[in-house]
Structure formats: C-alpha cells, structure tokens
Design goal:
The chain is of the alpha/beta class and about 350 residues long. The protein has helices spanning about 15-20, 30-40, 55-60, 80-85, 95-110, 115-120, 135-140, 155-165, 180-185, 195-200, 220-225, 245-250, 275, 290-310, 320-330; strands spanning about 1-5, 20-25, 45, 65-70, 85-90, 145-150, 170-175, 190, 205, 230-235, 255-260, 280, 315. It is about 35% helix and about 15% strand. The strands form two sheets. The chain has a seven-stranded parallel beta sheet with strand order 8-7-6-9-10-11-12, sandwiched between helices. Strands 2-1-3-4-5-13 form a six-stranded mixed beta sheet, with helices on both faces. The relative contact order is 0.14.
C-alpha cells in the first residue's frame, strides 16, 4: 500500500517503511499539489492547510485514511469523509500539556500586564504606564479570589483546571454540554450553563472544538454579557470568537482584555484591528508546540495510518460513523476499500 506525506523534516518515513508501506513525499503549497500527492495513496498525513475537502477526497479514489497533525480536525470535511469511507484520525492528548501551559501563560500575561511591562521597560520607562496616570502596582490583578471559567472541558480544559487551581481561585466553573457534573467533581469544577459562565467568570479560557455549534459562540451578544473587568483567553480555534465583535467589545470596554493564540483567519492580517488594540495580545498559533510534541506527534500520526491499514484501532478517530459506511461498502461495492477484506468494523471507540 502507498502512503502520501507532505514534505516535512519531522516525517517518520522509517516507521512506514518498516511496516512495509511505499512512501511518497512532496511539497504541498496548494490544493492541486495536495491532490497530486495523494491521488494514488491509500493513506495520507494532513495538516491545517490545505483543507482536506470533499473535492480532495473524491479526487483520491484509493484514499482510506487521513491522519491529522495534532488534536483538531476542523480542516477535514468529516461529513464527506464519513460518506466516502475515509477514516479521519487525529492524535488526542499529544499536546495537552503545551496548550494548557500556554493558556495559563496568556492569562498571567493579562493579569500581570507582562507584555506592557516588558515593552515599556525596554523603552526606558519604569513602572509607570506611558500616557496614563495609572501604574503597574494599581492595575495588575491576582487570580486568587476570582472566578475562572472554562469553555470546553475535555483533556485540555481539565489540564488547565488542574494548573489554575494552584493559584487559589474562589471558584472554577466550566461549560461543556457533553460533560456531566460527576466529571467536574473530579477536578473541583462546577459545570454551568454558558450564560451563567459568561455572567459569573472574571477570567475565561476557551478549550472547545471548532464545530458548527461553536462557530461565533462568542459573538457580540455573548461578549456583551461579560463583566467589564473580564479577561478572555482563546487557545482553541479562531472561529469560536467573532473577531470583529471582539475588537469592537475591547475598544468599547465591554471586557478588559483578551489574549489569543488563534484567530479567525490565519495568519492574521497585519492591519487587523485586534493587533492595534493595547488590550489584546496575540501569539501566532504556537500553543501546541514544543520539541516533545514535534517528536511524538509524527509518530502517532504515522501509527494511525499504519494501524488502520493493518486492521487495528488508531489513536484517535474523529468520525466513528465511517465504520458503518465501510461495512456497507464491503457488503455492496467495496470502492476504495477493495483489497482490504479484513478491515474490522469494531474499530470505533
């Protein structure tokens, strides 16, 4: 079988070759490059860009599995993948530590005004905020005694909760319609409605997936319910926040500040209003990275493809309903699964 890998110094070609797969690598700068590379492949590694769309998968009739870098799968058309019989795999947990750490760091940068303090000190100022009668001593804030809200209580949200508890918040609340209070109890977290979280939390961090349900979850209406002193952190996905509405809310003082590692359009335009606001800090979608991640993720990404094409369970499967599609294919027209008679319909988790 053949596996396609967009060129990367981190690709684990050795793992595929040891498993007996033919590997093709090549630069991918466009959708056309993507299709050309994967056209005859049985499996492929994919990333954030180009998008793994229906058109891409339809143009690759042998493709059976794609393995996505990291945790998110929003770059893959999951409905199309399920319909076409393509497993969409990811690597859950591979950078939970990195993202949770980055979220805490961004929150601390806001509460302690670290970005301003470093920048103005380099400019020759000492403690005083230029153009203001305020000083750092009177504007920095403590996490202790405040309410922290977590939107999305999966692995990363839970990791953030364990970290932030050490700072002594008065309460940690979380919103996740798919998580029961019994799970929240394990982390000392009270599960609440989205509305209650918006109204109660002093500090909010976002850790939910990007779906049709969460797109613009933080729109002008939601942002308008925040405390004027609220701090908002997003290390999940950019489209969860309406960027235009956030810029307007920050400028109007509807919330105090925001720190983002992700934006609606990436890379963010240098003229985007968010980059002009003194109460908004933006990092370039780097929360999930570390040398450890760059070593471990390609291994799991490769193992997903090897396992699926060898009839074993992958590390993560984002569209478990595809197993039913493949079962039907085997019973009628095997299509892209021709020649793989032993694929197990018990892989879904």
């Amino acid at each position: 079988m053949k596996v396609a890998l967009p060129a990367s110094p981190y690709n684990r070609v050795d793992l595929f070759e040891a498993a007996g797969f033919e590997v093709i690598e090549g630069p991918v700068r466009s959708t056309d490059d993507f299709i050309e590379l994967m056209r005859d492949a049985d499996g492929a590694q994919v990333g954030v860009m180009p998008l793994t769309t229906r058109a891409v998968m339809e143009a690759c009739p042998k493709l059976k599995v794609v393995s996505r870098l990291g945790v998110g799968v929003d770059s893959i058309d999951l409905d199309a993948a399920t319909e076409l019989g393509v497993l969409a795999c990811n690597t859950p947990g591979v950078n939970t530590t990195e993202v949770a750490d980055h979220a805490v760091a961004l929150l601390l940068s806001l509460t302690r005004h670290l970005h301003d303090a470093i920048a103005t000190t380099r400019e020759g100022h000492w403690r005083d905020i230029p153009g203001s009668s305020r000083t750092y001593q009177t504007t920095v804030r403590r996490i202790a005694g405040h309410t922290v809200g977590i939107v999305g209580f999966g692995n990363i949200g839970r990791a953030f909760a364990t970290r932030i508890r050490g700072f002594g918040p008065a309460e940690i609340v979380a919103h996740d319609p798919y998580v029961e209070q019994t799970t929240g109890d394990l982390y000392g977290v009270r599960m609440v409605s989205f509305e209650e979280l918006l109204e109660r939390a002093d500090y909010i961090t976002i850790h939910c997936s990007a779906t049709s349900e969460t797109t613009h979850m933080f729109d002008s209406n939601a942002l308008g319910k925040l405390k004027s002193t609220a701090l908002l952190v997003n290390t999940a996905r950019g489209p969860i926040i309406d960027g235009t509405a956030l810029a307007a809310a920050l400028e109007a003082g509807q919330l105090e500040a925001a720190a983002l590692d992700v934006t609606e359009v990436e890379p963010i335009d240098s003229q985007d209003p968010l980059l002009k606001l003194p109460n908004c800090v933006v990092t370039p979608h780097v929360a999930g990275f570390s040398p450890t991640f760059l070593e471990e993720c390609p291994i799991r990404q490769a193992e997903n493809i090897i396992r699926v094409l060898s009839g074993q369970k992958p590390h993560g499967l984002a569209n478990p309903e595809v197993i039913k599609t493949i079962a039907v294919m085997h019973a009628t027209d095997t299509g892209r699964w021709a020649g793989v008679p032993g694929f197990s319909t018990a892989l879904a988790v």
